[in-house]
Amino acid sequence: MAEYVFIPGAGSDSWYWHLVDGELRSRGHRVATPDLPCDDDAAGLFEYADTVAAAIDDPAGTVLVAHSFGGFTAPLVCQCVPVQRLVLLSAMIPQPGEAPGDWWTNTGYEQARREQDERDSRHPDDEDALFFHDVPAELATEARTHSRTQSTTPFTQSWPLSTWPATPTTFLLCRHDRFLPAAFMRRVVAQRLRIVPDEIDGGHMIALSRPRQLADRLEAISGFPARS
């Protein structure tokens, strides 16, 4: 049995994880889904990390899962709390001294997104097709009601670590992600983490589109089986 602690992406809340939360709890695991102070202009990356760290009860049995922008927060948590494993789920990967707002230019993101939009025949302004193309319609509708204001404060702060923490790290790449395209992220993972990512079918909002499959994969990565 494990404790899974989930970090949401920008402008998101704990509801995003509710289906995976239920799936993992039904298998006997403990789950924590802290809400970050993302709408507070006084809160930055350290405050986000403190919020997550406070939700961890058993570091040695904890698998920390960070989605999207959560990739900037998760290593800060690992630096102060010795969790068992970090899973970056279709997440941004920072490098020392990099502000999140500079990540897009530094990684060549805009060109990668343009190329992905062309492959998907997606209009640049169609955010439904970007994020919810594989999410059931009723869930996509509800997800929009859980959108939160995202302060720009953490995007202006330099990532403070000089190196990646020693925590064993897995990158779980979503093959059908249109927001952080798979080919682009394979390159970023290779350059910044020097590992080969694990891969799973699904788009950027995989916790809503494939919660059971995601729970299966998290169990496999963590090595913590369900309670019999």
What pattern of helices and strands is seen along the backbone?
EHEHEHEHHHHEHEHH
How helical, in percent, are the residues? Answer: 25-40%
Radius of gyration: 16 Å
* Model regions low in confidence, pLDDT < 50 over at least 5 residues: none
Strand content: 5-15%
Please provide the count of β strands. Answer: 6
User: What structural category characterises the helix and strand content?
Assistant: alpha/beta
Description:
- With 228 residues, the chain is of the alpha/beta class.
- The protein contains ten helices and six strands.
- It has helices at residues 18-26, 45-53, 70-80, 100-107, 109-120, 127-131, 137-145, 182-192, 206-209, 211-222, and strands at 3-7, 30-32, 62-68, 85-91, 169-174, 198-200.
- The protein has a six-stranded parallel beta sheet, with helices on both faces.
- It is globular and about 45 Å long.
- The termini are close together.
Show the helix and strand layout:
Elements: E1 3-7, H1 18-26, E2 30-32, H2 45-53, E3 62-68, H3 70-80, E4 85-91, H4 100-107, H5 109-120, H6 127-131, H7 137-145, E5 169-174, H8 182-192, E6 198-200, H9 206-209, H10 211-222
Parallel strand pairs: 1-2, 1-3, 3-4, 4-5, 5-6
